[in-house]
Amino acid sequence: MIEIAQYESNYKSLWNDFVKRSKNGSFLFCRDYMEYHADTFSDSSLLFFEEGDLVAIMPANTADNVVYSHGGLTFGGIVSGPEMRIELMLHVFASLTEHLREQKIRTVIYKPVPHIYHVIPAEEDLYALFRHNAQLVRRDASTAVLLDQRIPFSRGKKRRIQLGKRNEIVAKRTDDFRAFMEIVTDILARKYSVAPTHTANEMELLSKRFPENIKLFAAYKEGIMLAGVAVYDYKSVAHAQYIASSEEGQKMGAGELIMDYLIDDYSSGSSKRYFDFGISTEQGGRYLNAGLSAHKEGFGGRTITYDAYEVDVANTKPSEV
Length: 321
Fold this sequence. Notes:
10 helices; eleven-stranded mixed β-sheet; alpha+beta; Aminopeptidase; 2 domains
């Protein structure tokens, strides 16, 4: 029998310890990351116990009688330990939907962790979603490089990297998030009339809380930052959270040089399996920014998807396990 507990602060250590040993968790699910924007989201996170042992957690928030897993995170879903098996997951899901019905929740928007972020296979939740007649409501296309079987860069990218080298661009790690976010903000405003998800203050705060997971690499010319990549460092994936190059940097090949530096560094100097550029889709996944995806594919990346499912809690009950 599965027992469910609503997250409270006294569970913080138990929750964080479980994330660290999980097979599909990440630092995003640690409470110090989730709670930096606690004022924005009404937390509804859950813990699942079997005979007193914690077997799963679900980062979640509630808005307008809908539970999201989690609205403030790139992905979420049920986080499970190595002991999670498919039959147990079915019991977890059955308990989850019954618990939410009792709470008068009608719908769950569920964003499973993409498979490349799994330490070991962890797709039991996808089968449970199928058994609960969940509907795929969003699919975003991301681009990832398999680091130990890299596809060669395109000729155009190689030429741009050489341009950066001729211009004596230097790539290195830095903690100057303020200068970098100025570049990010300028580009997003000019190209898309939007603001970045994080402010410079937030990126500085999060990087101090998670110095081994949130890193900034930048390309410089004579001490001036021309391009940079904010990397979220997961267990098996290096994810480019932000990529930006100033107008001058674009002319000098700084953006391509920093990507060459990073992909080469993660290929040879880490245990990471993938470098993930992030999504190139908009409008709930219905629009592909073809130029952006082609740019990423030029570095040897190919497509993986970030999905979201809708579960009709009020009207859907699973078949017997």
